[in-house]
Structures are given as structure tokens and as C-alpha cells.
Amino acid sequence: LMTQHSLRPRDVSGIKEKREPVYQISTLQSLILGNYYGCLYIEDLLKHGDTGIGTFHAVAGELIVIDGHCYRILADGSVLEAQPLDTTPFASIAYLEEGHTIKFGAMATAEALREALDDSIELLGPNSMYVVRIDGYFNRVAARTELYQHEPYKPFAKVLETDERRFAFENIEGSLVCFYFPPFMDGVNTPGWHFHFINAARTLGGHVFDVDMVRGTATLNKTDRFILDLPSNQAFQYADLANASKDDIHKVEQGGGD
């Protein structure tokens, strides 16, 4: 028998017919512990979005996806377009659609930019995920990439101590690809903002430490849907993922030199 309560209409005001997700292959904990085995072809990664960040097999360079193209950042900060059968051990990607547009003036540091973006998502809901692309002109972008690793793989924090390569670009036009993950997703990905950069000519880029932006225009997309695709390799299946330290996660974001 149906009760009177069960006959009440559901509140469906929050239900959306179209919900584009953030798709992610593997977890940050797995990468931190040294699982650098490529487990997804780039051609398959690009089936899930046109805007993304990550790394390549053996952490051989930072990965950035923009306008549906995937690029690898080499040791000197130069860029090559990735091949379809290149692989990634860890990446996040989504479709960037028409969303909220934000006009930025001068932002002297990455921290100032993060705070401005935080103000925007505070109004929209900080427990969702956000994908942002900022096209602008920069006085300076400080960035990094990493060198190809050989087995047995070291933890990522150890890789950064010896095989991180840093560089800076000055007076440059380009784009920041930015992902935000809420604090409750800590470990699955980096909580807060994570920035990668590529110039307008698609010849220079990297994982971003700091920026001095003259001006920029951001497209901001909010999503409340997340697809996590787990690797099937033994390095993932038997890893003690809970042992990925928060200090090491911080080093991966801020770099081995900090």
C-alpha cells in the first residue's frame, strides 16, 4: 500500500537533463606513489572532453588539452602535440561549454588569481567541480615539467627533487586551463585550483607555479558530475593509496624546489 507521504511529488528543481562530467583516469594518490604506467590512450582521453590537464606515461612531460588537442610539455618548456597512441597514467578532462564569463584585470600572483576565482565559485557553490579557461596576456608565467622516468619508479616527490625542469615565460599571450576540486575530494585529486599554461602559438607551456597576468577573460563551467576510471594494472590494484602523504601532494603541486 502506498502511503500519503509517498504520493507527494518529488522536488525535481535540481535535476538537469544534460550534465557534462569531469572525467578522470586514476587518482592523485596513485600518481604520488609512483604509478606512472600509461593506462589510457590519448585518443580515448579526448573522447571525454576538449579541455584538460595531466601527465604522460613515465611522467614524461606535463599534459594539457585545449580546443580538443592534447599537448606534451618538454624539458625546455616547448610543446609537441601528443600522438593518438601515447598514453596517460593520470589526467582530468571535461567539455568546456559556454558558461560564466569573467573579465580579469591585473593579477600579480597566482594566489591573487586563486582568490578571485574562489570569490566566483563561492557564489556558485564550492562543493562542485569547476573547469575554467583563461585567455589573456601575461607579464610572466613560471612553470615546470618533468623528465621521462625509468623503472623502478620513484615516488613523485622524489622525481621532482632531481628531474623537475623549471622555466619562465615573459610578455606572452596564452591560456590557463584551470581545474577546481572541492576539499572532500582530497587525494582523488588536488583540492583547490590547479593551473596549466599554453601560449597562443601552442609552442610553450607547463604546470603553473605563479603568474603575473595583465588581463584575461575566463570561461567558467560548473559541474556536479564526476567519472573516475580506475587503472587495472597491479601497481594500482595493490597500492596502499591511503599512504600518499599530504606533504608529497603539496610538493607535486608546488614543485620540488619549494
How would you describe the overall organization of this protein?
The chain has a seven-stranded mixed sheet with strand order 6-5-4-3-8-1-14, with no helix packed on it. Strands 9, 10, 11, 12 and 13 form a five-stranded antiparallel sheet that branches. The longest helix has 15 residues, at about 110-125. It has about 260 residues and is an alpha+beta fold. The chain has six helices and 14 strands. Mean pLDDT is about 90; it is low at about 1-10. The radius of gyration is 19 Å and the shape is globular.
Q: Quick gist of this model?
A:
Helices cover 17% and strands 40% of the residues.
* Rg calculated over all Cα atoms: 19 Å
Runs in which pLDDT lies below 50 for 5 or more consecutive residues are: 1-12
What coarse outline follows from CA principal-axis ratios? globular
Protein structure class: alpha+beta
Mean pLDDT: 91
Order of strands, main sheet, comes to 6-5-4-3-8-1-14
Specify the number of helices: 6
Q: Order of SSEs, N→C?
A: EHEHEEEEEEEHEHEEEEHH
* Helical coverage, percent range: 10-25%
For the biggest sheet, the summary is: 7 strands, mixed
Q: Report how far the terminal alpha carbons are from each other.
A: 65 Å
